[in-house]
Amino acid sequence: MNTAIGRTETAYLTNKSGGSVAQGDVVIVDIANASAFTTTTTAAYVNGVIGVIIEPNGIANNGSGLVALAGWVPVINLSATGNIGDLVKTHTVAKQGVRHTAAQVAGDFAMVLGTSATPAAILFGAVQQGGSGSSGTFTDYSATSTVSGWSGTPTKQIWTYKIDRLVVVMFYITGTSSLTTASFTLPNAVAAASNAVFIPCVQVVDNGIGSSSVGRVELTGGSATINVAATPSGGAFTGSGTKTVRGSFSYFSD
Description:
This protein has 2 domains: 2-123; 139-252, Adenovirus Type 5 Fiber Protein (Receptor Binding Domain). Helix content is 0%, strand content 44%. The chain is built from no helices and 19 strands. The protein is globular, with a radius of gyration of 18 Å. The two termini are 34 Å apart. The model is unreliable at 1-6 and 131-135 (pLDDT under 50).
């Protein structure tokens, strides 16, 4: 059974790895057993679908549970301490990801959102096969994007991936709030014919509270400015304290 939980695409799969797995472990969809996953010791695996275990208590061998395939995950287990914006591919050690700095290379399937060996991450939903150009890599738009709602210079990671008219966005912005609103700009405007779209795909921290709270992004046709709300219903942020927004979404441009 496939499902979507908030901002994360998941599948309910059976563990056929021969051993137990823990939350945050890196796995691959099993091509020998139906609706199952296993582990790999192939570095930079590119021949299938990569996922991360999100069951808090893990999954025993031959047990079943939720595996994240795309979107935000609270934990990914790395071979060493990662930094915000690092990219991740599979490791020669089963169940671990190995991080590296940009640029993206073949085998990358996730981006790190914290500074630890067990950080949160965003899964791309597809494995980078290599190549270059606008249809082959994510573009770091962090330095160019105009960010509003924070004082000073907030920490920001804004990445876009464009294939024809489809634009995939991953973002992380954190700092001291100065406004009750939050927004950032992208290089490609939303298709002009689009109506206002609200997507509950954002993990938010408001005034230092709510590391697991869900907000939403608000897209307007013809605009390259993405507004972020503190709640799924469009609630405002507090204009002080720590404000963090992170998530991923996609849209069509003109």
